[in-house]
Amino acid sequence: MSLTGASPSGSAIGLRRIQREKASGAMTRPVVFFEIRGNDPAKLQLFYESIFGWKISTGAFGLRNIEPGIGGPEPGVGGALAPSDTPRVVLYVQVLNLAETLTKAETLGGKAILQPVDVPGGPTVAQMADPEGNIVGLVQQ
After folding, report:
1. What's the rounded Cα separation, in Å, for the pair 30 and 77?
2. Please, which of 7, 87, 107, 117 could form a disulfide with 14 given CB 3.0 to 4.6 Å?
3. pTM (two decimals)
4. How many CB atoms lie within 10 A of CB 49?
């Protein structure tokens, strides 16, 4: 899926859906990044490189950067392997306004986990938990 939300074929139906969503303010928000967290990022790197052919390189803050996927009809999103005592997968969703999204999450039974913070040379991010405790990252670009 492209970040514009168009259908994979770029069909007129997909474009009309986008126009309707924009007009109503109901645009769906795309996943733009992910993290796979675990105790041994080096072991995870070997696993994911071997099973999926992902290209992974060492990055800042102890992260191992996963290049966006290529070769399919649409490019994939990039991600990172991150050291953590609690293994989990965190999706990062692009939103229009971090503060409004965190407030809305709390009114719907979620919880703000990380208030907005600027990533050096990158976007502004935040994190929330859904009502079940799953962590979801938020990106405002």
Report:
1. 10
2. 7
3. 0.72
4. 14
Measured on CA atoms in the order 38, 42, 48, 50, is the torsion positive or negative?
Answer: negative
Give the residue from 126, 31, 24 showing the smallest Cα distance to 75. Answer: 31
CA distances from 47 to 7, 58, 91, 102, 110 (A): 32, 15, 19, 34, 33
Instruction: Please tell me what DSSP assigns to residue 140.
Output: E
Q: Residue 67: what residue type?
A: E
Q: Tell me the pairing of strands 124-129 and 135-140.
A: antiparallel
The torsion region of residue 10 among left (phi > 0), alpha (psi -120 to 50) and beta comes to: left
pLDDT digits (tens, 9 = 90+) for 81-134: 999 999 999 999 999 999 999 999 999 999 999 999 998 888 999 999 999 999
Q: For residues 85 and 120, what is the distance between their CA atoms, to the nearest angstrom? A: 25
Q: Which among 54, 36, 40 has a CA at the least distance from the CA of 91?
A: 36
